[in-house]
Amino acid sequence: MAGKMAGCAPSSNPQASRSSEPLRTPVHAMANSERLSAPGCWAACSNFSRTRQGILLFAEIILCLVILICFGALTSGYSSLSVTEMIFATLFFVVYMCDLHTKIQIINWPWSNFFRTLVAVILYLITSIVVLVERGNHSKIVAGVLGLIPACLFGYDAYITFPLQQQRHTAAPTDPADGPT
How many helices (H) and strands (E) would you count in the chain? Predict the structure, then answer.
């Protein structure tokens, strides 16, 4: 019985337990894959954040956060717009950063981005005008003016997104195939 237990017990000799091969367990393989995928994810994030669309989306997220603070000081009704637009801008940032817009073909991402920015322009303009028209203290004036800045930024984003959609479509030939008559 002691012989059977000695065969099952791990060796107490440190030389026998070491081997020249690295451990090939699933845990080690997963750790290696995470280590290799992390720089790729960081590279994708930093590469996208240097593009014009990445800079615009990042600026929209930051401005929505600033406007959330300014409008939140006034009343909670105005801050819901900034929260919603910040969530949508973050969603589109992640989708474009991870290149999901090419993998998820159900949604037309450029047109969705265009309509998102167009709606944001309209809502920020309305909200800013309402805040500016209300009689109040200086914080309302500052919040109203600061609300016009993201409206301009979202408008610029909508402007540069829409012509990209126009360039993808080619015009149908209008000349008859038989020649002039």
Answer: 8, 0
